[in-house]
């Protein structure tokens, strides 16, 4: 039988890579600079395009004074709505795989200004410096109109978005009677929790290099994206190109965090310029322009919870109001977690949007859940105090054994183990429950905890595997590695399935010439592409066995696929492992130069449908607060995560470490602050949009809780890119309360709020 | 960024001549502020004069027992210089509380004095700003002004001077040595930076074309009792919301000499002689510190988002004075800050 992944053999096998801590296979390329990012493809003779952003928030462009700019020697063209060619006319051509309900923004299409820093022109020149200078002196006249950018003033303008983007489900229908149960319960809590917009700001800013190949309209599009095929579909639809003409390549992505789930405007502009000028063009955004892209939306959340005298939850009410743009409905799942995480018979959940004059939000790491779990988990902590129950005990008491939103059992749920293992490692039992009870010198010490939950999903994916006579295996799929470790885990899966050493296997991704993979997002890549790689390699293994059986005096003659194993570069009989064939020899003996298989995987919906599939985590946090000065340090974090099978504990741990750092930033620092008089985010740079630095990060302990799940997918993986973030911000805020007795319900917990 | 010409000046006199000979000339130190401002089109010099070859990188003792810091010595070389560490630890601490190791390796002492405000609007050409464009208006008043000032502000501008190093230099009463078209002169640190008044475009009292050559530190470095306390939105690599340089001399528990300067609160490092006077001759107690703090903040005015700075500054003054008295590091910020360099 081919090496089954679900149950590893007892004996340790050399090529048994799955579950083994494995360093990134792309690590050396990244640290030596060999890894090329979108703006680093130095195609010869390229032009440079610099984007001009609107200083106006709402209104229209009345005139673009291009002439003086075009008169500068070396300036090639100024593109704007005035001279952009006629492109696809219907909205549906502009709808990408991550598109929202509504009408997608079309760059350089009309004089109308819909948000501050909207791209209004692209200045193309022979050098970057000249393009940047020309973009600066380009004079544009605007007619400004009054705008409204503050969600606070739109509280009464909320509307139910219905179905929006792919995968979004409106909140489940109410169950029981949340209002009545609340009024009758002895312990009650209600409060509002808020945060402003946040921008994901991956280190690599969005950039595209388009290589003009000259043959008709043929282009190589090197783009920063989380989905090469998504960009290709968008570009081919908008510009009327064939797939052959628009090859999209994205080998390395310097952070995605959701920003790359939709084609951003620089790829549109670079392609437009390349096609019009019949020339290679590069366009990269500045850090400030990164604040013109999608963001985690400013959200106001109302939570009302009640418990009985035993601490049993009686009522859950969670209503969220989030910003969206004037032209699209950005939807994310903020509230359903409140009906899912805890057992409760009376639940009412609402999710509404209100329009402001800003760009559409976009998914940002654990979209919706990061927002919702912050509010829910802070509210749970507050109610635990009111009910006089330890916050951890309170959660165990209300543990959901079943998904009450969907009325389904969980495919697996080791959240209880997360609580127990996390608490033990953290030393939760040492906690004196009284706020302000623990001091260390002049500092107040607080412990807080919280829970998170994220979807375990799988999407359709394809892969190709090619074994050559030199014994090398190349596996490919047009997925992405946004720093998650995709290159590495796919290499591990392929190597183990065919019993080849890791060094003999190369995984190739990020290119539309490869078999299609879903957008790299939703924590589904390991499950989706992983299963496709596994299936494809299994099929290759079957072919290989066929050839091996044709060899002279083959010891494998007549045995079935189930009766052999692929290990250590050999195919061996299970009943006598000394009866084996060296894989390298098989192709050579057959006279074939290579063996190639293209296959894939689709989710087994019949198997999955009866179940609710989720990953979970429990976060425990210690903070030290200098009360006089309002400073908070997160000195210890234990994050226990149950996310199915862990393919690579090393990269999985990195994912969770990064999530914790992100969560600390969300709790203490991150916010994009608008001046509503001008409708513009003002702290639009890394000096003033704060994220943690090394000095903010202390002990972080990651516990990967064992969890078996044969429902989610054949590999049993649930994905770990997002779940680790959940609960971190709430745990920090709860710990701050425990330390100081102060509740901060408006993130971030900055100095001014603790004075 | 506009087009500009560039020369590397061979010496001080040549640099000053170059400056006089070019309209829109600017000196280039480490470039960590000027080049950023050029990229944002806030600064648009037509001619840059590189200072790298000027013989101004030395740190040497002066005959009167003080120390001369060359204008081109880097912030890092200054902070880690043995004489600075030993005799002026307050200055070392302040420098190391600023920016990041990479920036401090590039930044020069002269450039540090002349770095410009971090007011959000100053950096964003889409918004009015009197400092950037005199007469256009001040967006920070009535806008997002978390980083802006609470003391010595004007109707034209409420920006702060963002330097940490300068707060210590103000407390230590450094003297700025400059060389210009009209020769050499010295400027007392307290007179170097300006309040905004109705000319916020002018940060300091340098005359056109004047080059900073050195900073002279007087003999007394208050190396026995001092504290630089910096409060910010993260533990490192962020500008001060409020910072305090405190230096004391004690006779028993009685304060005999005191220096107090605040950063992040005004258009210049803020010193209040009356607050310092309230400390002299008094016991080094929380009460005394509280009175000095109240005096230092007496004229403070908040503008909404930055109003918290008044209370924060008051508490920071008390804490810094206590730390200087006890010579204990700040329980959290300094402890964490020390992992910074
Ligand atoms: C992200 C970031 C974070 C920072 N954080 C902090 C912080 O927390 N605390 C802090 O104090 N600072 C901080 N800084 C600022 C940093 O300290 C200054 O940028 C630096 O000190 C400037 O020195 P420079 O030599 O690079 O000056 P330059 O950028 O070269 O010059 C600055 C100005 O001084 C002029 N100039 C330079 N040298 C002379 C001279 N000898 N004579 C006359 N004029 C001269 C230039 O013409 C220019 O106008 C930060 C900077 C950045 C970019
Ligand atoms: S405070 Fe000063 S720097 Fe800031 S906007 Fe007003 S004038 Fe400009």
How would you describe the overall organization of this protein?
The complex is a heterodimer of chains A (755) and B (341). Chain A is an alpha+beta fold. Chain A is 25% helix and 25% strand. In chain A, the strands form nine sheets. A seven-stranded mixed beta sheet of chain A has the order 3-6-1-12-9-10-11, sandwiched between helices. Chain A has a five-stranded mixed beta sheet with strand order 19-20-28-29-32, with helices on both faces. Chain B has 341 residues and is α+β, with helices and mostly antiparallel strands. In chain B, helix 2 links the parallel strand 2 and strand 3. Among the domains of chain B are: 5-53, Uridine Diphospho-n-acetylenolpyruvylglucosamine Reductase, domain 2 (2-Layer Sandwich), CATH 3.30.43; 226-325, Enolase-like, domain 1 (2-Layer Sandwich), CATH 3.30.390. The A-B interface holds A 55, 116, 129, 132-133, 136, 288, 441-443, 624, 626, 628-631, 633, 668-669, 673-675, 677-678, 680, 682-685, 687-688, 690-696, 750-752, 755 and B 1-3, 41, 118, 120-121, 123-127, 139, 142-144, 146-147, 231, 233-239, 241, 308, 311-312, 315-316, 318-319, 330-333, 336-337, 339-340. The complex binds flavin-adenine dinucleotide (FAD) and iron/sulfur cluster.
């Amino acid at each position: 039988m081919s090496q089954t992944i679900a149950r590893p053999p007892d004996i340790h096998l050399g090529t048994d890579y799955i579950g083994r801590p494995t360093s990134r296979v792309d690590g050396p390329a990244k640290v030596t600079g060999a890894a090329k990012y979108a703006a680093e493809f130095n195609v010869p003779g390229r032009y440079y395009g610099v984007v001009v952003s609107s200083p106006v928030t709402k209104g229209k462009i009345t005139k673009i004074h291009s002439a003086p700019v075009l008169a500068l020697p070396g300036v090639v063209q100024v593109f704007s709505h005035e001279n952009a060619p006629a492109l696809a006319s219907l909205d549906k051509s502009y709808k990408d795989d991550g598109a929202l309900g509504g009408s997608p923004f079309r760059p350089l299409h009309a004089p109308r200004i819909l948000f501050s820093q909207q791209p209004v022109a692209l200045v193309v020149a022979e050098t970057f410096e000249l393009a940047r200078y020309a973009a600066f002196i380009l004079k544009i006249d605007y007619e400004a109109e009054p705008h409204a950018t503050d969600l606070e003033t739109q509280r009464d303008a909320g509307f139910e978005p219905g179905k929006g983007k792919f995968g979004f489900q409106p909140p489940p229908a109410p169950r029981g009677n949340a209002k009545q149960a609340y009024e009758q319960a002895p312990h009650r809590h209600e409060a509002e929790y808020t945060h402003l917009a946040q921008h994901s700001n991956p280190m690599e800013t969005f950039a595209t290099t388009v290589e003009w190949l000259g043959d008709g309209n043929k282009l190589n599009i090197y783009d920063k994206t989380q989905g090469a095929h998504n960009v290709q579909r968008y570009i081919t639809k908008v510009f009327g190109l064939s797939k052959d003409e628009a090859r999209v390549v994205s080998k390395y992505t310097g952070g995605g965090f959701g920003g790359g789930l939709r084609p951003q405007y620089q790829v549109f502009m670079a392609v437009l310029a390349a096609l019009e000028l019949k020339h290679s063009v590069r366009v990269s955004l500045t850090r400030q322009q990164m604040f013109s892209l999608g963001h985690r939306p400013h959200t106001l959340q109302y939570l009302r919870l009640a418990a009985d005298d035993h601490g049993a939850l009686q009522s859950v009410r969670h209503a969220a109001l989030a910003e969206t743009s004037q032209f699209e409905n950005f939807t994310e799942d903020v509230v359903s977690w409140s009906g899912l995480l805890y057992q409760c018979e009376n639940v009412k959940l609402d999710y509404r949007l209100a329009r402001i004059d800003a760009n559409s939000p976009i998914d940002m790491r654990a979209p919706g859940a990061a927002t919702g779990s912050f509010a829910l988990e802070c509210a749970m902590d507050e109610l635990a105090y009111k009910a006089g129950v330890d916050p951890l005990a309170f959660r165990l008491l209300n543990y959901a054994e079943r998904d009450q939103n969907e009325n389904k059992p969980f495919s697996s749920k080791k959240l209880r183990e997360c609580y127990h293992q996390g608490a033990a490692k953290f030393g939760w039992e040492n906690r004196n429950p009284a706020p302000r009870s623990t001091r260390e010198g002049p500092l107040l010490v607080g412990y807080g905890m919280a829970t998170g939950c994220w979807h375990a999903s799988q999407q359709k994916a394809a892969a190709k595997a090619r074994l050559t006579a030199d014994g090398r295996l190349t596996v490919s799929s047009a997925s992405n590695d946004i720093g998650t470790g995709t290159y590495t885990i796919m290499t591990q899966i392929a190597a183990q399935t065919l019993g080849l050493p890791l060094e003999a296997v190369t995984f190739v991704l990020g290119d539309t010439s490869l078999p299609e993979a879903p957008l790299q997002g939703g924590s589904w890549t390991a499950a989706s592409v992983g299963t496709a790689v596994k299936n494809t390699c299994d099929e290759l293994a079957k072919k290989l066995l066929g050839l091996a059986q044709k060899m002279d005096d083959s010891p494998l003659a007549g045995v079935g696929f189930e009766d052999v194993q692929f290990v250590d570069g050999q195919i061996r009989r299970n009943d006598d492992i000394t009866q084996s064939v060296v894989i390298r020899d098989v192709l050579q003996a057959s006279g074939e130069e290579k063996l190639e298989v293209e296959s894939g995987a689709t989710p087994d919906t019949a198997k999955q449908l009866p179940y609710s599939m989720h990953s979970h985590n429990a976060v425990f946090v210690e903070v030290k607060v200098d009360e006089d000065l309002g400073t908070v340090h997160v000195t210890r974090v234990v994050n226990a995560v149950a996310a199915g099978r862990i393919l690579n504990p090393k990269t999985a741990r990195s994912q969770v470490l990064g999530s914790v750092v992100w969560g600390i930033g969300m709790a203490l620092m991150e916010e994009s602050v608008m001046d509503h008089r001008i409708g513009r985010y003002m702290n639009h740079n890394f000096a003033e949009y704060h994220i943690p630095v090394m000095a903010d990060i202390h002990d972080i302990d990651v516990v990967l809780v064992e969890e078996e799940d044969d429902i989610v997918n054949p590999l049993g993986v649930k994905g770990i890119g997002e779940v680790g973030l959940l609960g971190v911000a709430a745990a920090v805020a709860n710990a701050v309360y425990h330390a100081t007795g102060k509740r901060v319900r408006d993130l971030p917990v900055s100095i001014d709020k603790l004075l | 960024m506009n087009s500009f010409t560039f020369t590397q000046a061979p010496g001080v006199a040549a640099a000053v001549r170059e400056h006089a000979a070019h309209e829109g000339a600017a000196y280039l130190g480490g470039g960590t502020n000027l080049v950023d401002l050029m990229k944002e089109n806030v600064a648009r010099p037509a001619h840059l004069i590189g200072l790298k070859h000027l013989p101004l990188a030395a740190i040497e003792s002066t005959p009167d027992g003080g120390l001369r810091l060359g204008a081109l010595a880097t912030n890092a070389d200054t902070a880690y210089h043995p004489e600075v560490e030993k005799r002026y630890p307050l200055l070392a601490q302040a420098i190391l509380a600023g920016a990041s190791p990479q920036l401090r390796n590039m930044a020069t002492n002269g450039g540090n004095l002349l770095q410009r405000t971090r007011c959000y609007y100053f950096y964003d050409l889409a918004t009015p700003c009197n400092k950037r464009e005199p007469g256009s208006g001040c967006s920070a008043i009535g806008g997002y002004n978390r980083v802006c000032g609470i003391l010595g502000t004007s109707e034209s501008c409420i920006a702060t001077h963002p330097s940490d190093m300068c707060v210590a230099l103000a407390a230590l009463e450094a003297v700025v040595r400059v060389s210009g078209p009209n020769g050499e002169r010295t400027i007392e640190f307290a007179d170097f930076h300006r309040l905004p008044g109705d000319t916020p475009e002018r940060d300091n009292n340098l005359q056109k074309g004047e080059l900073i050559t050195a900073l002279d530190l007087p003999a007394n470095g208050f190396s026995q009792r001092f504290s630089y306390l910096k409060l910010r939105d993260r533990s490192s690599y962020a500008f001060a919301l409020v910072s305090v340089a405190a230096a004391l001399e004690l006779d028993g528990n009685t304060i005999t000499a005191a220096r107090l300067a605040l950063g992040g609160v005004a258009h210049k490092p803020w010193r209040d002689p009356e607050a310092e006077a309230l400390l002299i001759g008094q016991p080094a107690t929380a009460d005394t510190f509280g009175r000095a703090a109240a005096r230092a903040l007496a004229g403070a005015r908040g503008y909404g988002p930055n109003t918290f700075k008044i209370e924060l500054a008051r508490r920071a003054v008390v804490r810094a004075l206590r730390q200087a008295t006890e010579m204990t590091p700040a329980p959290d910020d300094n402890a964490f800050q020390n992992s910074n360099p």
